[in-house]
Design goal:
Blueprint: E1 12-16, E2 22-24, E3 48-50, E4 56-60
Antiparallel strand pairs: 1-4, 2-3
The protein binds FE2/S2 (inorganic) cluster.
Length: about 80
Amino acid sequence: MKLPKICSKSPIAIDAIKDKRYAWCSCGLSDKQPLCNGAHRGYEFVPKIFTEKEDKTIYLCNCKKTSNPPYCDGTHNKI
Ligand code: FES
């Protein structure tokens, strides 16, 4: 399988909570998309750890090709 695995060609919205620590899956193997579940172990991929400064809805990349992880940058429209 070629990694990162494309999970979907659209972002996933989550309601992020201020200062909560999130781990975005960069490899595409997690079954808890768009977040990491540890399935990257043994591969060169590591999750992107991030927090938000306020409660807000964010759109996380799920094609795993974004240039601005963990956020969707529209790259899914080109693949
Ligand atoms: S499961 Fe994909 S980065 Fe952790």
